[in-house]
Fold these 4 entries.
Entry 1:
Amino acid sequence: MTDSSHPSISAASTGASSLLAAEAVGFSYRGGTPALTDVSLAVQAGRNVALVGESGAGKSTLLRLLLGLAQPTTGTITFGGRPLTRGRLREYRRSVQAVFQDPYSSLDPRHKIGRIVAEPLRGLGLGADPARVAQALDAVGLPADTAGRYPHEFSGGQRQRIAIARAIVCDPKVLLADEPVSALDLTTRVRIVDLLASLCAERDLTIMLVSHDLGVVAELCRHTAVLEHGRLVEQGDTSQVLGAPSHPYTRKLLASVPRLTN
């Protein structure tokens, strides 16, 4: 499942060749210490990237910047080699979508699944096309009649499949996945990881994965970047970073984070 056919992504590979990149990015909350300092990280087509680190390392902050939900204090977020600006957000939303950690809170319980999955289409002015909704549900292994039901009728794993269907319905190039399996039981985690790997292969989708689970990282991502206290302390080929880490913090993570096993 690992996309091992691609070379590793170096810190210097931001810019025109990247789908999405952070270039020397820093971010500080008002009145607070810096949450991110001089972070450079690239997402290139077909090369899944993992972002790992303990709670408070800055992973969620960087993800917010990459989603265009906040602006860097210093540095630049680029999309297709050009700075991400407010005027480009609609184009950006069509190409970059997100899946979040909790499949219970991420789906509006008041709406049927068809409306939920069609949300990105409506937001982009593409119309709530039932055929595209059905195709997205099929891609994640759910029947078309799922569209007429409500979130409470589904298990956690099924709800996360619905959230993934919502993310892929507009055929994005990049999926930003924030701990997408951490709220699920072990067997369901394995199935969702398999699903994400299949979607990458079948839909030319590239994932940036935020995860505490280094087993999931090893399954899905070729490149791994390690954040400690808002600084990128190590990055490179996943087999190198996880197999022979150069930084003490990475070695600490390897000793403490549970692995995903079949």
Note: Residues 20-102+173-256 form a domain with the Rossmann fold fold (CATH 3.40.50.300).
Entry 2:
Amino acid sequence: MNLPIPYGRQHITDDDIVAVTEVLQSPYLTQGPKIGELEEAFAKYIGSNYAVAVANGTAALHLCCMALDVGPGTRVITTPITFSASANCIRYCGGEVYFADIDPDTVLLDPKAVRKLLESHPKGYFSGIIPVDFAGYPVDLTAFRALADEFGLWLLEDACHAPGAFFTTNQTVHRSGDGSLADLAIFSFHPVKHIAAGEGGMITTNNEALYKHLLRLRTHGITNKSEEFTPPYPGEPERGGWYMELQELGYNYRLTDIQAALALSQLSRADSMLNRRRELANRYDTAFAEAALTGIPIATIAPPVEIGHAYHLYVIQTPNRKQLYDFLRTKNILAQVHYIPVHLMPYYQQFGWKPGDCPYAEQYYGACLSLPLYPTLTNQEQDYVIETVTSFFNSADRLVTYPLEKSV
């Protein structure tokens, strides 16, 4: 058995190594053909019209906010249960972040809480919503699209946890990031995500204007496309093949061909890795359902039939979270907590956010723990995790009552 067992881990194969080596031996380490190949393949996999590869998921969020004209005076709503980048991207552009509470049954941003926030302010006060596909559970964007249309908002889907996830409405399948409901969506290629490239990210959209804008923003705001050039100024020397224009302030948020080659190789087996995640999640479900007969206070985020969960994380909940976390570490099982509510971070508390503002999110945080889940986790390793968790709760002094109180 391989110890320690982390909550997430990348899976690098010989094919991945060959793909990267071929780029290292090619003329292009960056700004070469692998970028376009990855963008085309990823858009096809997700089901969107366009894809833009960038340096990481945070860069993807930042560029989307720029493309959506977030700036001083812009107010955007997001969830407190997410990695801080989902909110920070608004601040990068000078906008204001508003947190709405989660639905305690899904741990996703609650459309009802968002509506309440929208209706408590004049129409036009808010500009957009950033829902997050937390843990691989896809947000039902139909509800948020209806809110966006009613209140004149844009939608930016943070789908970092959910490549391959989907939900179905009226027999229509919506894949996370496919552009059918959100204006833009973003993904991450961080090593613990479904597709690993070391670092890296992707933006998907069906909006051609946003797509072209993002291509400029990721490369300093520069274009070398002649059809986008401004007219020559009087006396300007004749333009040649070298000519390009800095048309707005952008960033160097490019992905390298090295990373793109690794992501492409990983993408080729994305479905098999996703199937393994679902298989492992099902094994946890079965084991903990049986263990519950002995009083183990475990709960998962269980999807309804019409949800295709991508299982970036497998989350359990227990009021004994700190004790269980410490106990697992003594057994070389490196569980993790996802996430500390962003509105309670000191940076956001300076803007007036405080405990009690998002009670369901805070209650969830007090009990959540992510167990190991990644494609190369073996059945033997998972059995060891299950047995260790079970042994913790079988100790008489650790038995507690579950579920947690849902009324707050």
Note: The chain has 13 helices and 16 strands.
Entry 3:
Amino acid sequence: MSTHGPVLPIWSCGGCDLPWPCLTRKRELRAEYADAPVSLALYLGSYLVQAAEDMPWAPAGALHHRFIGWTRQTTAAQQRSTATVPAGPYRNERQQAG
């Protein structure tokens, strides 16, 4: 178990006192959920709901970015690195038809 868990209700990190999830915890979560990005987003989404209740003054967009937004950046980068481009002839046929 990580020492970088959330300290409620202020949502700071118990290990380094930065806003939770801190960079260390994000690295740990990326490794832990490397093959399950949707599960990671759902896990953090439950924390987002709790944090929104504890910090009603915090802007919703900032909380979303803090808890979930960074996971999407990781997933998008992974998808770009594994994406393939369709074969050329099919693309050319579509362009000529239009």
Note: Residues 9 and 54 are 6 Å apart (CA to CA).
Entry 4:
Amino acid sequence: MNRKPKDFPCPGKRADTVDRASMLRVDQAGEYGATRIYAGQLAVMGDRHPFGRIIAGMAAQEERHRQHFDAMLTARGVRPTALQPIWNVAGFALGAVTAAIGPKAAMACTAAIETEIDRHYEEQLHALGNQDPELSESIADFQAEEVEHREAALAHGAEQAPAYPLLSGAIRLGCRAAIALSKRI
């Protein structure tokens, strides 16, 4: 049987049935994971490398996003994902490995993740409708910055990374899995 989970935002779903706690949990986890990916990349490349400076700027934005979602979790009494220790290690490792492959692989990582996050945020905005203006505004603002990150990564050679289609596909698949798990656990 091919069913979507009850809180998965999908076309036509009524916004008042959306699990906003799950949305906040997964969004905070995603922003936390992004900070860890960039930390891993910067640990390998350093912030003096030309791409390192670009990554450091993206990392600062992701940290601001994470802090915002941390505050929303607290204000709304929503627990963070129990998987955060895993995202800590996995995010840092993904960042370090892609940076070790090379700067363009680090950019490919960003492009892949931000492609999935853009899609994910768009689904959330559709599901929310006008039911939670505060959350919708945060998601829309952060989505715009995530798109900027993807565009910057593509402009800096993401698609020239070794085995780009395979690397991008694997990272996107992992990102979708992390989203699905963080919604619930």
Note: The helical segments are 20-45, 50-76, 84-101, 103-128, 133-155, 164-184.
